[in-house]
Amino acid sequence: MTPYPLRPYQCTAEVLNERAGLTISPGTLQRTVRVVAARPEAPVTAIRDALVAAPVAHADETSRRVNGNLYRLHVLSTNRLTACCPHPKRGAEALDAFGLLSQFVGILGHHHRSLRMPKLKQKVPGCFRSNTGVEDLAIIRSYLSTLRKQSGDMFNSLVLIFQVRPPMPQLE
Q: What is the secondary structure of 69-81 as a DSSP string?
């Protein structure tokens, strides 16, 4: 619930308590996000590989502060796939660091809509206090955004992630 709707941990803990009667600490939620970010490695790698092979993709970036330093969240996407990559640099250098732009041979456009949700997170006090936090956000956002574009069952997908069986999105 935290990375996708982009709610701070304390607020998410309160909502879970209020709506589901679950008493959970913000620290437990933070550890849970770390677990979730570590498990869809194969699907996120496959998403990035499919984006590199796409005939047309859109790229954009937005800046934010991470632990007091300026960072950018880069997005490479199609209408069915999304890859988010945090990096301190702008433009091609950052996407090259993730192996996305140097291998891309299709038509690349500039895109703004995909960055609105991550930009909201920046404005919430206490967010992105570490590089790990923004990296976790990028992994989870890449995966869930792709599943959402493909009308995937978000709840079931999260359950399967905890069972170490994250569903593979359609890559074509």
A: EEEEEEEEE-SS-
